[in-house]
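Why do we bother with holo predictions? Because pocket geometry can differ from the apo form. Keep that in mind while you read this record for flavin mononucleotide.
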Amino acid sequence: MYRIIYKSRSVAPLDWDMVLSITDASEETNSRCGVTGVLLASRTHYLQVLEGNFEDVNAVFRRIARDDRHTELSIVSFSVVDARLFAGWGMRGIGAFDFNKAIEAELMEKYGQEEGGVHFPLEEWQALAMLNDIKMMQKLPDWKR
Ligand SMILES: Cc1cc2nc3c(=O)[nH]c(=O)nc-3n(C[C@H](O)[C@H](O)[C@H](O)COP(=O)(O)O)c2cc1C
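The structure, written out:
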């Protein structure tokens, strides 16, 4: 099992509709090849996790990397992992911007700011810590998606 985490910059300002349109379109392709993960969006950036076997994770990543809706792709990590962090998530979109004000504020305090929004880390351990925080936050009653 492999996990890719990458960060990129959105070409257009990000909103929830944009995130939804990507995750809706990804759901079927990803589930067909058993790729799971999460697409985190700030006002300006994406942080995405893709989990699955070597071939499939690479194939999905190649398609994504060609997409001209984002640019400045940076690989945060590519690792062999024992288990999925996001099993059963298909491709879950999470908006860390005004849509989820409380969550945005909490993440900004912990991980810093970038261009007026949450700073998405480029270090793997920080990215995993942030994703883990989000997994916990999703259990809170005021979580919106
Ligand atoms: C930030 C971002 C994340 C994406 N994530 C996925 C994904 O997880 N799975 C997927 O199939 N397509 C994803 N896409 C869409 C692909 O880039 C691409 O548009 C889609 O797979 C269709 O590819 P094709 O036109 O080469 O068939 C994503 C696009 C962006 C901008």
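Residues 22, 25-26, 29-30, 39, 46, 48, 60, 63-64, 67, 69-70, 91 surround flavin mononucleotide (CB under 6 Å).
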